Amino acid sequence: xxxxxxxxxxxFRSRSWFDWVYAVLLIAGAVYGLRTYAAxxxxxxxxxxxxxxxxxxxxxxxxxxxxxxxxxxxxxALLAIGAYGGELGRADKAFLxxxxxxxxxxxxxxxxxxxAATVCYWWSIVHTREGSVHFAGQVATGxxxxxxxxxxxxxxxxxxxxxxxxxxxGHIPVSxxxxxxxxxxxxxxxxxxxxxxxxRAKSMGAFVLLVISAAVCFLLWYTFxxxxxxxxxxxxxxxxxxMKIHVPAxxxxxxxxxxxxxxxxxxxxxxxHRPAWALGGLAGIAVLFFVxxxxxxxxxxxxxxxxxxxxxxxxxxxxxxxxxxxxxxxxSLQLLDEVMYKSIAVGFGFFxxxxxxxxxxxxxxxxxxxxxxxxxxxALIVWLNYxxxxxxxxxxxxxxxxxxxxxxxxxxxxxxxxxGVNIFLSGLHSYGQL
Length: 434
Hints:
mainly alpha; 16 helices
């Protein structure tokens, strides 16, 4: 009855006073940004800023945790900016920056919290009894939210730091592999947290956090082995306002596809398709065994990646050995299928928008919408793959392990389009070299 009354009320009239305070604060913040930093923005970027404020208002109204996230991250970002006082050198001197809120420190906190959340999600699965949620599951959700808060605050601090390096260097932090891997972790976690709350299915996190932890492993290796966290000036081709909308749209797609792939893995485990998923797991490990030396090249894989490989084998083996136990604690096949479908549908929509934006950007930068560059070709392959997946589910009515394996393999295709093309193929889009 209450839900019916709520739905019958006008949308704006149903907002609480805190909703309106939240909206006023966001609009005020956007206006302050326009007045303070107008010299650094063109007309398109001012429109993007105001549109972003409206988008986050609507998201915060529709999903309360997003509102809390925006407020919390804004407070931390302002604290970081105040602690810097316009001097980049204070990152190693000011206590708050050195241990918590400089971009690199906050992102390392994000990495630690994601690892801890992964452990807690699996601990929760081991100790959960039917019809209840273990305390570790609540902790895991809290740790995941904390990781998102710290990572987002770190990205905003990095944005500010880039301008402290030089006004001609400053840019939104979505321009290289280091930055977009952080973005990928945050987006994947946020979409997962939304579905976790909506469906009250914390056990999905045990699988989804695995792919986030894998991305964190790459991020840590890329940071400490290659020094990729250093802020660099943008290459000329990236000095465009198109980057600010094309890259985030792309990574919403990537994050949703990764989320769907891990739910597909959970679906196969739940469905007891042991021969199929064991064979697929072995094939995946074999691919990693041969690909990693090429990825890391020059004498084969490092000790870091050999350790990663061993841990991966142990995880796959443990899930195989505990399959009946794990499967009993996973949500129903219907729920896994539904969330997998919704994730791919959302990801496909954003990936389509990103591809169109990329074509418009290419027309402005190179005078043509499409050149069959390797990155463009593989983007088309990814788009066709998920278009076919959605067609088979929505039109042909296909369900079950076939679609699940298709979604899982789709992540491999997407990963090559995102990362492999930059490593193995040269082209106009090869900006993120290892």
